[in-house]
Amino acid sequence: xxxxxxxxxxxxxxxxxxxxxxxxxxxxxxxxxxxxxxxxxxxxxxxxxxxxxxxxxxxxxxxxxxxxxxxxxxxxxxxxxxxxxxxxxxxxxxxxxxxxxxxxxxxxxxxxxxxxxxxxxxxxxxxxxxxxxxxxxxxxxxxxxxxxxxxxxxxxxxxxxxxxxxxxxxxxxxxxxxxxxxxxxxxxxxxxxxxxxxxxxxxxxxxxxxxxxxxxxxxxxxxxxxxxxxxxxxxxxxxxxxxxxxxxxxxxxxxxxxxxxxxxxxxxxxxxxxxxxxxxxxxxxxxxxxxxxxxxxxxxxxxxxxxxxxxxxxxxxxxxxxxxxxxxxxxxxxxxxxxxxxxxxxx
Length: 347
Description:
By secondary structure, the protein is α/β, with parallel strands linked by helices. It has helices spanning 13-23, 52-59, 79-100, 139-151, 177-191, 201-205, 213-225, 244-255, 267-271, 275-285, 292-295, 298-306, 316-321, 329-342; strands at 2-6, 27-31, 43-45, 67-70, 106-110, 157-162, 166-167, 211-212, 232-235. Helix 1 packs across helix 7, helix 2 runs parallel beside helix 3 (79-100) and helix 3 runs parallel beside helix 4 (139-151).
């Protein structure tokens, strides 16, 4: 295998890169704007995925590439441009790899439960891969439609993975719930703020699901190497469910503070201006000097805590096809927080 991993510093790609390095037997090309902080043997390429010529030029030498793992993402406030740019990045990359690598075998694409409309309101749960698409636009639809059409009659095949609330460590990721919680709890402890669940009461009670980044990486490689997964989509989560009302006291205990009263407010509005306070915490405790805006994904956390409906995916298809790994979500989140502490990301 020679794998091209896009989004290699993100909360998905970073862990996939690490898993491939540790797994061995694979040549790896990591594609990202900045070099990943993962030790091991791989080549790093900084490619502008919006520039088809840059893609062709920098990938031309990789004629032996066999697998593409696509987890790149670009946030854009304009919904039309958001769809167009994210679709264009995938198109530019795959066309460049195809033209350079006749041995291309598989393309794995990362989507999510927004495929089912989980971001729009109550939706059919547990969500199954064969359920119809939600009404309206979604760049996942455009990406998958293009990928399916492009693959017809080709020697390579594709797979799609649909996780939810991927949890791991990555700096600058716009969708990193675990790190946002770490920064929130730290600010509450250091500034003597109430550690309140920031969503409506219904969010506290609703069923929710998380996906461990390492588990997701294993699932992506399994999909890309298991012949039965060709041209299939799979929901991948930890396999269990949580309620924030049960987990919140355990989070408070980790930070050594009492859980505050449930209160619906915007983390971005109330904590977004705490960069100076965060920098002081970093200085006093000798933490890694990450920029406040790179470790605090407040907008995504507000999105997570804003929903009032169950978010549940059916992962039975993956198990029936042979991927049976599972993770305890509460233990995973607490272990991640402990890891952030040992890595001097939080005190």
